[in-house]
Amino acid sequence: MTWAGLLVPAVLLPAGYLALEQVLHRRGDAWPVARSAAVLAAGALLAVAASWPEAGPAGAGVAETVRHLLATMAAPVLLALSGPVALVLRVLPPRPRRVLVRLLHSRWARAVTWWPVATVLAASGAPLFYLAPVPHGLHGPLMVHTALASWLFATVVAGPDPVRGRPGAVTSTLALLVVAAVHGVSAKLWFAAGAGPAAELLFVGGDVVEVATAVAVWARWYRRTAPRPAAGPVRGRTSPGRGAAVPR
């Protein structure tokens, strides 16, 4: 596959996202800065993957693994944390918004966002790409599948986009452990097959991305469950003869 093709989503995804965000700002609506930073970081990682040198001192296999980690694991997780679907729902006019909501509530959408299905899809990428005898011509479509599966899984367990039946933090963490275990075993089997430093990088890099996703899962849980400070008493003066507090 031509890695330079990653420059297209590296530019279009952040540009489209920021254009939609500007629509909100012109209406006077706010949007979380952290989400905008996440999509910019995703685009930056895709650009790094596209421009990574073909081979270095450790060999071409390591360069391929770096690109795979950035483009199909790290960048999709950041994109999921940016909440692109939620942003589109905020910007769309009423009629297109209703169409998109119906699509999100369809049987197909409920099936692929059911956490066991999303877990299987996310876990399947590494063994298929590194262990299965997939023809070289199919590596490009397989990379697209892996990236989309990573984005879908991160959306289900940690992202701000609307998902019906989103699992709780404990279930999400268990699903993440399943994905991490499959990736770890795949890396070890690939190492046993002679991949050497590339397999070690896949093992360590996969763990880094999955730990970061776990942090996002529990950060979401904390934001939803942390007690909010109670509003203080309204300060005022007493109106003669009524005893009611009149706000200043």
Automatic annotation (TrEMBL):
<protein>
    <submittedName>
        <fullName>Cytochrome c oxidase assembly protein</fullName>
    </submittedName>
</protein>
<feature type="transmembrane region" description="Helical">
    <location>
        <begin position="170"/>
        <end position="192"/>
    </location>
</feature>
<feature type="region of interest" description="Disordered">
    <location>
        <begin position="229"/>
        <end position="248"/>
    </location>
</feature>
<keyword id="KW-0472">Membrane</keyword>
<feature type="transmembrane region" description="Helical">
    <location>
        <begin position="112"/>
        <end position="132"/>
    </location>
</feature>
<feature type="transmembrane region" description="Helical">
    <location>
        <begin position="36"/>
        <end position="53"/>
    </location>
</feature>
<keyword id="KW-0812">Transmembrane</keyword>
<feature type="transmembrane region" description="Helical">
    <location>
        <begin position="6"/>
        <end position="24"/>
    </location>
</feature>
<feature type="transmembrane region" description="Helical">
    <location>
        <begin position="198"/>
        <end position="219"/>
    </location>
</feature>
<dbReference type="InterPro" id="IPR019108">
    <property type="entry name" value="Caa3_assmbl_CtaG-rel"/>
</dbReference>
<feature type="transmembrane region" description="Helical">
    <location>
        <begin position="138"/>
        <end position="158"/>
    </location>
</feature>
<dbReference type="Pfam" id="PF09678">
    <property type="entry name" value="Caa3_CtaG"/>
</dbReference>
<feature type="transmembrane region" description="Helical">
    <location>
        <begin position="73"/>
        <end position="92"/>
    </location>
</feature>
<keyword id="KW-1003">Cell membrane</keyword>
<keyword id="KW-1133">Transmembrane helix</keyword>
